[in-house]
Design goal:
Length: 743
């Protein structure tokens, strides 16, 4: 691989203007398509085949009005007054009349006639039902409703909007995310020792992310995807794009510190060595994200593929656009030689990394044991992991969705926001038995210990479908609500005996079903990822023990990140610091997404760290010295890369969307733990204990696996710079009397 990339990089450098021009043209074309022909993204996370979705499909087919999206207008009277007072009711009636005129609305309920007024008559709600399903309700219609309720506020009442159609879109690009990018620039400047050199990885990464995200927006015109998919592509693409460019840039600057090395030769060798590791590491991220296809869950598949394509673009940018841009700067990328002050000797490059490696490997067993026990302790809360989707309680406290949730809880009880919809397909039940069967079911549901109320049954016009609403006593996120859903479904055999079918649906039931489906898929996905890690690392390092160690370290990182996520989002710790509106179950697809993404990123650091160890071991055959020199040469860049990723992911923790917030936290914490604890502590300690055995492989396996050469062992001997260039690098004047500017 290294020899091919060496030739490839030389070709890129010599045709740098064409390469840069093609990338700019690609950005313009994809940007134009994404900006003008983007599709509508969905706000719902549904899974075909689960019971709640089957029920929705049945309603859409046989009882379309019941399947439509709902915007719920929630009203609270001014202090000392009631919503049923004549002056308040007059304003409310006028607003509801305006709501009926909004395009797409098929029905608007009257609070007084349907029992939608609280016992103390201070809070009421009206359901505005659309013909379209919740994700299809146009934004324009919701904006018209938001404008229509203003007279209520003018009259001194509080008016908020909730309901299934009010799920907000996930968005990125706020101040917190920009702070992450600024921090990344500062880290780059410190790591590379130059503002100009720091700007190049950021610039190329932003170009690659722009192509990936805008391309995703264009594809959304043809494929249904959630808004989270675009944000995830931005989050991952930006982080890996900066990191991959940093790996190549740091190797280039390290080589240029030698005045004998020409800049073109350095670009080619940096792309061949660090670039090989980038290609290999990027491939692991792409494969891990694309492996989300095996879950069989459409929204997760699209999310994974969007992230995978963005990472692939980041890899292509690092091995094509970056070498071309470095070629434009040429000799100016050569670092300045530090000038000695007095008799003090300059500290050698990588000195602190070497000291750290010596410290960790002095008592490797103690370090390994302490690190493993510490990560297991952090992972302990994951034993209580509950999966779900965030309710409106998790939305920002200032949002109308959160306020409507609070008002409904205050007026109608904790479980009102968790209302479950019971759908009975009565087509197979004899007509004379239908009413008795439905009545018996209603009585059984009302008798449940966790049911607060059951609505009267509402048949479809044909009488083939009957719908009832069930209000639990517990909140949407409570474990008791999930237990109630399962008990309700336990009534299905009795309905089946009568010839019908029973389903339970609604937002809460859908969240429970999606969580169950994703929980079932998680063990298979983790197994595939671990096997993939073993294969790829065996291929890269010609070893059996190194992949086993890496896979175990990866599992520790995932466990610690999940444990921390449960501790924060499910158990409610640090809610004020992280601006978490309410504790609740962990986002249902977070464990699978975290496993896929963190696997790829963990393999990045494993490849860059261990490849430098193997590179030195191939020359010295001294395992202890290989560990020390490997950490010494790679510690600075691995630490910088990890800090950049933590900064980028950490910026998304303060996103208002609760799903994006939890993903940002889990990835930031996971990367931090994996880089600073697993790779920088446990890996050197484990490698020290393994010694020469770390690099052994059975002969039969060695013959089967191809040799990919990511260390550049078969590269040609380095070409030396011309004498004039060497003099310039050493700070002397060239024959012309002019020295090139350097950074």
């Amino acid at each position: 691989m290294a020899t091919r990339l060496y030739a490839w990089a030389r070709w890129m450098v010599r045709r740098r203007r064409w390469v840069i021009g093609i990338w700019i043209l690609l950005l313009a074309v994809v940007g134009g398509l994404g900006a003008t022909l983007s599709g509508k993204t969905s706000t719902e996370f549904t899974v075909p085949g689960v019971e709640a979705q089957v029920a929705q499909d049945l309603l859409k087919e046989k009882f379309p009005p019941a399947a439509g999206g709902v915007v719920r207008i929630v009203v609270a009277a001014p202090e000392g007054k009631a919503v049923t007072d004549p002056e308040q009711r007059k304003v409310l009636d006028g607003v509801l009349h305006e709501a009926k005129a909004v395009p797409g609305v098929i029905a608007v309920s009257e609070p007084a006639s349907v029992g939608a007024v609280s016992a103390d008559r201070t809070i009421a709600y009206a359901d505005v039902r659309f013909a379209e399903e919740a994700p299809e309700v146009p934004e324009e219609a919701k904006e018209e409703l938001a404008a229509a309720v203003e007279p209520l506020r003018d009259a001194g009442m509080q008016a908020e909007l909730g309901g299934s159609a009010m799920l907000p879109q996930a968005e990125a690009g706020g101040p917190a995310e920009l702070v992450g990018v600024v921090i990344a620039f500062v880290v780059l400047a410190v790591a590379l020792g130059s503002l100009v050199a720091a700007g190049l990885p950021l610039l190329t990464a932003l170009l690659g992310v722009a192509v990936g995200v805008l391309g995703t927006m264009f594809v959304s015109r043809f494929v249904e995807m959630t808004g989270t998919a675009t944000v995830l592509a931005l989050m991952i693409g930006l982080a890996v794009g900066i990191d991959y460019a940093l790996f190549v840039m740091s190797r280039h600057r390290e080589q240029l510190a030698d005045p004998e090395t020409g800049w073109e030769e350095s670009i080619a060798r940096a792309t061949a060595t660090a670039g090989s590791a980038v290609v290999f590491a990027g491939a692991t991220v792409v494969i891990a994200l694309a492996a989300l296809v095996i879950t069989g869950i459409p929204f997760l598949t699209i999310m994974g593929l969007a992230g995978a394509v963005t990472v692939l673009i980041a890899v292509l940018v690092a091995i094509s656009l970056l070498p071309a841009v470095l070629g434009v700067f040429g000799e100016r990328m050569r670092p300045r030689r530090p000038r000695a002050k007095g008799k003090r000797k300059d500290r050698p490059a990588g000195a602190w990394g070497l000291a750290w490696a010596r410290l960790v490997t002095r008592k490797p067993a103690v370090v390994l044991l302490a690190g493993v026990l510490g990560l297991l302790a952090i992972a302990l809360p994951a034993r209580d992991l509950r999966l779900g989707l965030p309710s409106y309680a998790a939305q920002p406290e200032a949002s109308t969705q959160h306020k409507s949730y609070d008002l409904l809880t205050e007026g109608f009880g904790l479980g009102f926001n968790a209302t479950l919809i019971t759908v009975v397909d009565t087509e197979g039940i004899p007509k004379e038995q239908r009413q008795a069967t439905v009545t018996q079911l209603r009585d059984a549901l009302a008798a449940d210990r966790n049911v607060a109320a059951v609505s009267p049954s509402v048949p479809s016009p044909s009488g083939d479908v009957v719908v009832m609403s069930v209000v639990p006593k517990s909140s949407p996120d409570a474990e008791a609500t999930g237990d109630l859903v399962h008990r309700m479904r336990d009534q299905a055999p009795e309905i089946a005996e009568a010839g019908g079918s029973l389903y339970v649906t609604g937002q809460t039931a859908m969240a429970i079903d999606v969580a169950g489906k994703l929980g079932d898929a998680l063990p298979l996905f983790i197994s595939v990822i671990v096997l993939l890690a073993l294969l790829l690392l065996a291929l890269a390092f010609r070893s059996v023990l190194v992949p086993l160690k890496a896979a175990l370290g990866f599992l520790l990182s995932v466990g610690a990140s999940l444990g921390a996520s449960v501790w924060v989002f499910q158990q409610g710790n640090l809610n004020g610091v992280l601006d978490v509106s309410a504790a609740g179950p962990v986002t249902s697809f977070l464990p699978i997404l975290l496993t896929g993404v963190l696997f790829g990123l963990a393999m990045d650091y494993e490849v860059f760290l261990v490849s430098r160890m193997r590179e030195h071991y191939e020359h010295s055959k001294d395992p202890a010295e290989a560990i020390a020199q490997g950490v010494s040469r790679s510690a600075r860049v691995v630490v910088a890369a990890a800090l950049i990723m933590v900064a980028v992911f950490g910026g998304f923790i303060f996103n208002e969307d609760p799903i994006i917030k939890s993903i940002g936290f889990a990835l930031a914490f996971g990367v931090f733990v994996d880089a600073f604890v697993v790779r920088m502590m446990l890996v050197p300690a484990a490698m020290s204990l393994l010694g020469r055995r770390a690099w052994s492989m059975p002969r039969w396996l060695d013959r089967v696996l191809p040799d990919v050469d990511i260390e550049g062992a078969r590269l040609p001997a380095p070409a030396r710079a011309e004498p004039a260039v060497r003099r310039e690098a050493e700070g002397e004047d060239a024959p012309s009397g002019k020295a090139s500017a350097r950074v």
